[in-house]
Structure formats: structure tokens, C-alpha cells
Amino acid sequence: MLAGFPVVVRHSRHGGLLAPVTQDLFLAPTRAPHELDVAIRLRAAGVPTPEVVAYATYTVIPGIERADVVTREVAGRELTRPEEAETLIQAMSRAGAVHPDLNMRNVLVDGATAYVLDIDTVYFLRAGDHRIDQRNRARLMRSAQKLGR
What we know:
- By secondary structure, the protein is α+β, with helices and mostly antiparallel strands.
- The protein has helices at residues 19-22, 32-44, 86-95, 130-146, and strands at residues 7-11, 26-27, 52-61, 64-72, 77-78, 97-98, 107-110, 113-116, 123-124.
- The chain has one domain: Orthogonal Bundle (Transferase(Phosphotransferase), domain 1), CATH 1.10.510.
- α3 runs antiparallel to α4 (130-146).
């Protein structure tokens, strides 16, 4: 709880092939400030994403940091069918947001609303660019196929 509301503290970690080596170490600055900026921009554009309320960075050695990001908790369940995210994908396209790691685990469904998570790698193209919808949709579908959904 933070200021009377439930929060989630997420320790930043690398993914991918080098994750076992890099683990939670990032070149300064970490992606935490970018995640805050992206969250603000997405929410202003009407894209549901948990509110980033704080982040902290910790210097390991000069130039190398760790980070934690604190978001308002969204009660919900993991995405089970890509169709549940249709409105979210459309909103992301209107906002110009490309999520390179959009997968079934990075969408949380609360009632009729799908929230996009793990937005530290999101970048923006010109809103309405047809590549945005194609990229986000293709990435989500690959994830669904991997999970057999």
C-alpha cells in the first residue's frame, strides 16, 4: 500500500538471450524514467496502462544501475484470448505506440478493459501509421501461438 492504495513494485530485469548474464544490471540511465514518460503518454492518449507512481534507481558502480518501478495495482487476470485485447490494440495504434514485447502475459484484463503492461520498451511512431497495428497484432499473435491459444 502506498498513500492508501495498493501498488505493485516490479524489479527491472533484462529479458532475452543475454538475461542470464546481464540479469538486473543496466547501463545508466535505466529504462525507468522512459517507462514513466511512456505511461503518462499512453494514459493521456486513452491507452489503459497502470499508473506509474514512482521509480527508484540504485547505483551499483558508476554507470551501472538497478531499478524498481512502482505502479498502481490493477486487479485482473492474464489475457487468455487475443480478441480480448482488440480495443487495446486499436487505442495503441491511435496513440502511435509500438510494444516490441506485447505478449499474452503483458496484457491484463479487468472487467471489459485490457491494460498493457511492461511498457519500458514501448516506442512511438506517427499516430495512425499502419505498421503500428501490424507490429502489435503480429507480436501478440506469436505469443498466443507459443502458448497454444
